[in-house]
Amino acid sequence: MNSNLVSGQDKNDTAGWRGLLSGLRHALRHPLARPLGALAVLLLIDFFMIPGFFRIEFKDGHLYGSVIDIVNRAAPLMLAALGMTLVIATRGIDISVGAVVAISGTVAAMLIGGTMVMHNGVQEYASNIPMGWAIAAAMGAAILCGAWNGLLVATLGLQPIIATLILMVAGRGLAQLMTDGQIITVYYKPFFYLGSGYLFGLPFSLFIVAGMFIVLALLMRKTALGLFIQSVGINPVASRLAGIRTAALIFFVYIFCSACAGMAGLMISANIKSADANNAGLLLELDAILAVTLGGTSLAGGKFSLVGSVIGALIIQALTYTIYSLGVPPEVNMVVKSVVVFLVCLSQSPEFRRLRFPSFASKSVK
What we know:
Blueprint (H helix, E strand, L loop, with lengths): L1 H27 L4 H17 L6 E4 L2 E4 H8 L1 H15 L7 H16 L2 E5 L2 E5 L4 H25 L4 H20 L4 E2 L3 H8 L1 E2 L2 E2 H19 L2 H10 L1 H6 L4 H27 L1 E2 L8 H11 L11 H20 L5 H17 L2 H7 L1 H8 L1
Antiparallel strand pairs: 1-2, 3-4, 5-8, 6-7
Helix pairs in contact: 2-14, 4-9, 4-12, 4-13, 4-14, 5-6, 5-7, 5-12, 6-7, 6-12, 8-12, 13-14, 16-17
């Protein structure tokens, strides 16, 4: 009797371990497993190498700490990555994101400016025009840039990298022409709230990103828009024959991508309290593309993950923070990013997987 009970207990333990291993394998196969693992490794390195990395303090109604600083500085990149996700999902690419950031920040800074006035005997700075109109003008300029890209890609049929390369060069040149190559300083405190303000103890920029993410996620989940984007990314010809307005959809995603870049430009300009057309958003498009691919979005189109893109942006910002905090020369950051891009491209290459795992490839063929 006792031996039967023991053997039954052993069988239950074995079944439990098998179930645990099966669940672990299933979790590791999840598309977000790799980006989350990479972020966890970075944070673990920071925990051991940077004293007080996870320490968070509450001062003057604000939360302070390294983690808060990382997510705050990653906010513009997260916005750009969300817009880039939809573009890449439709087999496109937008390398004009940095130029749109420069244009948006320049327009807002030039319109807001800041003039010294006397109010009840106190010197104050006033905006040249109402801040709402300045933000609307900056976002309108960004949307026009997206419409230009969408027109070239969706209507004229230009290759996305060529179409957006035109705006990448001309857009930053236009921003430099508007400022005469000078840095435009802003002296209006309410505008600074977009980049360095706090709400409920957290950076206000995070609430902007969260709002954009929620709206976009609802559109992808609760409407057919997400399915249409996947369909166009997988096979645009078949999608068009099935009745999907492919050109209109591609036109929309480029407008949305530029709108996200425009909002990122406002954040950056408000954070540094100026508009630097020469350096604002420089190489941001490359970071956005890297964040999207790190998050699991396929460069071949169709498959995309909004959550993964946000995690990818956090990985890039955490990596940058780690390199700077450890005293490594900033030039190393570019080398590390290039290595990461190389590894991501290899991971998405079917030919490399067949070379690395020939047995699995042969089984799949059978």
